């Protein structure tokens, strides 16, 4: 992250913070480039942004095709063959459309020469201002923190699944093969402490590409196993209306789980919270960053939707009402165990990169605020570069503390499906729909009461209803899980 807001500052304090930031850039704190203009972007940033439609697509795919894909078979099982795929396509369309609106807000004014908004909060500040900036910041960073927790849980479950798959292979499927996920969460946290020392979003492009490749790897394996199981079953499982009310599921549970399925699907498509930050890596026009980002969004959403439809539908076809909430760790599949090991290893590698994609905006926010608050502090500004890492005492201390905190909270809440649904439900409307719609209306001067204004408002209101319903279903499921939950246990 190059420049951006330092926090919830306004008025004279905000202007002073902005002046400090410009001075920091001019003083060369950004590092990594020469002194000539050829090394700097139009805003003075050095080195120049070098992102393309492909690197932006890699960031998006890393963020989108995450662990959420593994819960889609369960989500479709709750909704059935009719509503399940229809809801998935509907979410894909809404995410794509609102993402194009948000991409227009990267620059204020002209799409090629207007003032850059470096972060989501900057875009809200430029277009909406007031208390909405604070509201956006609270929701965005709380959600990013929640995603870090969700990914730590998911990674540990996949590491544990490797051990259990090997145990089932050796001792048989009837063996409990119980083990704690806590050591794996700690191991994941240690790895993230190391990767968290990469300074900013620009420098993790290679990690995003590796993570994107891994996401395609485990998604393809899940799809292949689903096809094989469906063939072995002699046909598709499931029904038009989803899981049946009966001995195992009450009518109320059916309602809550159907609503949670909406949250799971929303989480699987969630990346709007870091869209502006991804767009800020794209090289300067021509073409404009908005055009490049729209193309990257189209490529990414189309690609992920195809994968989601295939993985979710084939998982449901393979297991029907018994679809697990995590296709590759719920042990609907037992063999070939080595292929499950490869898939779960790919999930872990992917989540290492995805964790960084979602946490870098938090890191940048805190570090810019600290630099503005204590501009003379050597503890904050001192830096030693070693390869791709830029080491400083402050970065090492605070980022390590952040990773440790997410790890401890993950150990306290080790239920994957419930967390996924709640995160998706809570963040979907405000960050994916409301703010992009409101900013676009202001940015483009959409006349109040016009046909476009009415359509945008109706879209926002409808998505609010969906988001509230999905949150209610997820909260009900979390409450059920807490009834039998013991802290620091698996």
Automatic annotation (TrEMBL):
Cellular localization per UniProt: Cell membrane; Membrane
Chain ranges passing through the membrane: 53-72, 79-98, 138-162, 204-228, 296-317, 337-358, 396-416, 422-442, 454-476
One Gene Ontology cellular component annotation held by this UniProt entry: plasma membrane
Record domain Amino acid transporter transmembrane: where: 49-479
Record Pfam families: Aa_trans
GO annotation, biological process: amino acid transport
Primary localisation category: membrane
Membrane topology: Multi-pass membrane protein
Keywords: Amino-acid transport, Cell membrane, Membrane, Symport, Transmembrane, Transmembrane helix, Transport
Any one GO MF annotation of this record: symporter activity
PANTHER family for the chain: OS05G0424000 PROTEIN-RELATED
Family: Belongs to the amino acid/polyamine transporter 2 family. Amino acid/auxin permease (AAAP) (TC 2.A.18.2) subfamily.
Protein name: Amino acid transporter transmembrane domain-containing protein
Organism expressing this protein natively: Zizania palustris (Northern wild rice)
């Amino acid at each position: 992250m190059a420049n951006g807001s330092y926090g919830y500052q306004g008025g004279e304090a905000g202007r002073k913070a902005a002046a400090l930031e410009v001075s920091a850039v001019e003083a060369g704190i950004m590092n990594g480039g020469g002194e000539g203009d050829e090394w700097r972007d139009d805003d003075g940033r050095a080195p120049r942004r070098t992102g393309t439609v492909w690197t932006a697509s890699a960031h998006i795919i890393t963020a989108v095709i995450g662990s959420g894909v593994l819960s889609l078979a369960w989500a479709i099982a709750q909704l059935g063959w009719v509503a399940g795929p229809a809801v998935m396509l509907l979410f894909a369309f809404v995410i794509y459309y609102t993402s194009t609106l948000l991409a227009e807000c990267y620059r204020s004014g002209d799409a090629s020469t207007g003032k850059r908004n470096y972060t989501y909060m900057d875009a809200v500040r430029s277009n909406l201002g007031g208390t909405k900036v604070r509201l956006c910041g609270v929701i965005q960073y709380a959600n990013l923190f929640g995603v870090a927790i969700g990914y730590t849980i998911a990674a540990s479950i996949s590491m544990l699944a490797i051990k259990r798959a090997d145990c089932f292979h050796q001792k048989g499927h009837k063996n409990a093969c119980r083990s704690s996920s806590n050591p794996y969460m700690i191991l994941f946290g240690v790895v993230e402490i190391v990767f968290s020392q990469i300074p900013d979003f620009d420098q993790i492009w290679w990690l995003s590409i590796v993570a994107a490749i891994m996401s395609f790897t485990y998604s393809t394996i899940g799809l292949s196993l689903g096809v094989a199981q469906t063939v072995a079953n002699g046909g598709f499982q499931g029904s038009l209306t989803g899981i049946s009310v009966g001995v195992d599921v009450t009518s109320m549970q059916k309602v809550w789980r159907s609503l949670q399925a909406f949250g799971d699907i929303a989480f699987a498509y969630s990346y709007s919270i870091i869209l502006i930050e991804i767009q800020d890596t794209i090289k300067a026009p021509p073409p404009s960053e908005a055009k490049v980002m729209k193309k990257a969004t189209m490529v990414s959403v189309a690609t992920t939707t195809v994968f989601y439809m295939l993985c979710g539908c084939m998982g449901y076809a393979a297991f029907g009402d018994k679809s697990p909430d995590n296709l590759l760790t719920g042990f609907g599949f037992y063999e070939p165990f080595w292929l499950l090991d490869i898939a779960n290893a790919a999930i872990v590698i992917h989540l290492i990169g995805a964790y960084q994609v979602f946490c870098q905006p938090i890191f940048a926010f805190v570090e810019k605020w600290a630099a503005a608050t204590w501009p003379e502090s050597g503890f904050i500004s001192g830096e030693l570069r070693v390869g791709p890492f830029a080491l400083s005492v402050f970065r090492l201390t605070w980022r390590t503390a952040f990773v440790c905190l997410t790890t401890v909270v993950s150990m306290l809440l080790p239920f994957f499906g419930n967390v996924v649904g709640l995160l998706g439900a809570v963040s979907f409307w405000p960050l994916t729909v409301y703010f992009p719609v409101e900013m676009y209306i202001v940015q483009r001067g959409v006349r109040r009461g016009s046909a476009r204004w009415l359509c945008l408002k109706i879209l926002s209101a409808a998505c609010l209803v969906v988001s509230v319903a999905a949150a209610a279903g997820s909260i009900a499921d979390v409450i059920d899980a807490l009834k039998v939950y013991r802290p620091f246990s698996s």
